[in-house]
Amino acid sequence: MLNLSKKALFAASLATALCAGLYAADAPEAEACGCFVPPDPTVPIVQAGERILFGQQNGLVTAHIQVQYSGAAEEFGWLLPMPSVPEMTLGTDELFAQLIAQTQPTYRLDRTYKGDCPFDPNRGQGGGGAFPSNDSAGGAEGGDVNGTPLVLRDSIGPYDFAVLRADAKQPMLDWLDQEGFFVPSGTEDVVDAYIQPGGYFLALKLLSGNDVGDLQPVVLEYESDLPMIPIILTSVAADPNMGVQVWVAGEDRAIPRNYHHTKINDAAIDWNKAGANYVDVVTDAVDEIDGHHSFVTEYAGSSNVMLDVLDYQGRFGNMAELAAQTTAVDFVGYMNNTGYPLFNNNGPNGFSPTYASQILNILQSHLPVPSKLLEQDITPADYYWNIYYYLGDYREQNPGDFLDLDIDFDPVVVAQELQERVVDPTLAAGKMFRDHDYLSRLFTTLSPNEMTKDPVFSFNPDLPDVSNVHSGEITYYCHLLAEPTLETTPAVLITEQGFKLVYSNGTGDADAVNPYEGISMPRSHYQEVLREEGEPEVVVDNTDEIRLALSEARQADNGGCSVSGSGTGVGSLALLGLALLGLRRRRED
């Protein structure tokens, strides 16, 4: 969607195959109180500018759009091209946090140790064998309202929204200006692509009394055969190399119908830092395509990875029981015991709870954290999770910290707000993965000058699944050094695609520069065209060029000596070490 903000942020808009449109645009990530922590802190989370989940079934597209915005509340707005008048409901940030956690690309190494390695976990001498750790609208459709392009206007949650006809540009822009919907400079030029008889725009802004902390995802359902992202509209305020992250739920694997498809060269991935350069590799790989129009498939497989994640049985308890809790301690305690917070076993303090931003916003509004506690860096999440303690023993021992304590609230009102803004959106999001058997995740990056073609997504039942978990094999040769360490020991890494990287001087510590970082080689392994049936059509295969580049790098590293081309071979330095070790052992015998 086009985010109408002076401050650099367009949110999401999506659309359909026949020039129908809607999807999310760019944004520096908005801060959400109680942001979710990924289950594995070594996994590099993609900080996408646009995140959206499409569901497509029986001529209807359902789009969950994450709202990302930073700036003044009065300068927030969306303008989304639509193929038809949508039904609009509220969504939840937890959907995207869980989608990321369940489908995030990960790069892991299986380690083998040759020689007497003190850091070999099987040696029994500690040191650790693991490498150091391094993402429904009310109203009715009709004609002109008082001679304007307005079709309907309503509100939901924190939003004031309107649906406008897209028959002509100027009447629509004039109406937005008159009604206080902020439109940034440049919109007038790019919006032309979406002005057409029978089209619509959805415009949103914050209701009076709300601020950017009240933003939450929206869900749009509209008639269309296929989902599409009107990326042209996004270009008005997009950042360079803006991430576009798309999930598609359907019956088969999703494909970019009018964009190329790229498989990245995994020899360019920094495996020793858990793929920390992943986004850079993707950016470079898709830029190798003419026009830079290509997507990478990061996951394609069963939607069961999301089954019972959002809507497991018994979650949220009983709303009548929640509304009957009349004290702050009992009310929040009931929430904590019925699945409102999530839990991360790898937090800074081990087991730690997190809350969706919508939950924290509601609790902060009705049961605010005392200011003195916030000054002591006690987070809202910590306060609500430990509310028995803070309003019990801690309060008795530190009464001065609670001078502005406000625990006078209406449990019925708060429970109703939680129902509308948290419970219903979360359960509805979970149902999507019961209604659709297959889930695909695609990713690309685009700069404003590259946003010249709206990507359309379709399906191909003949394509294989794509795992988001990638494994390489690294072998350490410890006999070469008197006191080998994990970082300085010569090693050989075989990537999942079979490429060989030789580290004759070790892999370096967590701060070391990847010695293969600067090698001149393609970042794409294959450039493909995916169709709605059949196997991929490979238009560029860079396998030989990648192997040649790696071979030349190994020879340069070994002083020009040749290196074995086998999957288990090592550089000349490692081979010399093996020979010396054998000679020493024969002499000892």
How would you explain this protein's 3D organization?
The chain contains 15 helices and 26 strands. By secondary structure, it is α+β, with helices and mostly antiparallel strands. Among the domains are: 106-120 and 470-523 and 541-588, no CATH class; 319-419, no CATH class. It has a ten-stranded mixed sheet with strand order 7-12-5-4-14-20-17-16-25-26. Helix 8 runs antiparallel to helix 13. It is globular, with a radius of gyration of 27 Å. The relative contact order is 0.16. Residues 1-48, 125-143, 345-350 and 559-589 have low confidence and may be disordered.
Provide a quick synopsis of the model:
The chain is 24% helix and 26% strand. With 589 residues, it is α+β, with helices and mostly antiparallel strands.
Number of strands: 26
Structural class: alpha+beta
C-alpha termini separation: 75 Å
**Average pLDDT figure:** 81
Characteristic key phrases:
about 600 residues; alpha+beta; ten-stranded mixed β-sheet; about 25% strand; disordered C terminus
Strands, helices and their partners?
Blueprint: E1 2-3, E2 12-16, E3 20-24, E4 50-57, E5 60-65, E6 78-82, E7 87-90, H1 93-103, E8 106-114, E9 150-156, E10 159-165, H2 169-178, H3 187-190, E11 200-206, E12 218-223, E13 227-228, H4 231-234, E14 242-250, E15 253-256, E16 260-264, H5 278-287, E17 294-302, H6 319-323, H7 328-337, E18 342-347, E19 350-354, H8 357-366, H9 371-375, H10 380-385, H11 387-390, H12 393-397, H13 411-435, E20 438-446, E21 457-460, E22 469-477, E23 491-494, E24 500-503, E25 524-529, E26 537-541, H14 543-557, H15 572-588
Parallel strand pairs: 4-14, 8-22, 16-17
Antiparallel strand pairs: 1-6, 2-3, 2-13, 4-5, 5-12, 6-11, 7-12, 9-10, 10-11, 14-20, 15-21, 16-25, 17-20, 18-19, 22-23, 23-24, 25-26
